[in-house]
C-alpha cells in the first residue's frame, strides 16, 4: 500500500472519530451524574407517526432523575433495586424488582433510587415520532 493511501485512511478515521464526538457530546452532557440510559431498540409502529422505544435506565444509590415528560405513554418494569416514582396527581409509589408502572402521555413525573444498590428499569415508550423522547420540566 502506498503512503498516500495510508495517510488518507488515517485522516478519514480521524474525521469520523471527531464527528462521533461532536454528535454524542450533547447527549452525554445532558445526562445527570449517576444516571445511565442505554437505548435498546426503536421501531416504527403500525399506527402512523408513532414508534416504540425501549431504554434501560440505571440510577446509582440516592440518585434522582428530575421532573420530566414524554410525548407518549411510558411503561416501566423495575429490573433491580428500589425506585420511588413521583407522578403528578398521584401519591409517590416505591417499586421493587418485578413491579410495573404505567405513566400516561405528557404526565409530569420523576424517579429516585431509594435503595442502597444501583436500581434499574426497562422503560418502554409508545411515542410520537420526531419529537424529543424526554422534556425536562422546571
TrEMBL record:
- CDD domains documented for this protein: cupin_BLL4011-like
Q: What region holds the Cupin type-2 domain?
A: 56-120
Sorted UniProt keywords: Signal
Give the transmembrane ranges: none
Q: Which Pfam families match?
A: Cupin_2
Q: Which domain of life is it from?
A: Bacteria
**Where does the signal peptide begin and end?**
1-29
- Signal in keyword set: yes
Name of the protein in question: Cupin domain-containing protein
Amino acid at each position: 500500500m502506498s503512503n498516500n493511501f495510508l495517510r488518507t485512511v488515517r485522516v478519514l478515521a480521524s474525521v469520523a472519530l471527531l464527528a462521533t464526538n461532536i454528535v454524542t457530546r450533547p447527549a452525554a452532557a445532558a445526562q445527570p451524574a449517576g444516571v445511565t440510559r442505554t437505548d435498546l431498540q426503536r421501531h416504527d409502529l403500525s399506527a402512523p407517526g408513532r414508534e416504540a422505544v425501549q431504554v434501560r435506565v440505571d440510577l446509582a444509590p440516592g440518585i434522582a432523575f428530575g421532573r420530566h415528560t414524554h410525548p407518549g405513554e411510558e411503561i416501566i418494569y423495575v429490573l433491580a433495586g428500589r425506585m420511588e416514582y413521583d407522578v403528578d396527581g398521584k401519591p409517590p409509589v416505591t417499586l421493587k424488582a418485578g413491579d410495573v408502572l404505567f405513566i400516561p402521555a405528557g404526565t409530569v413525573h420523576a424517579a429516585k433510587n431509594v435503595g442502597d444498590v444501583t436500581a434499574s428499569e426497562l422503560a418502554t415508550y409508545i411515542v410520537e415520532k420526531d419529537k424529543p423522547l424526554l422534556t425536562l420540566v422546571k
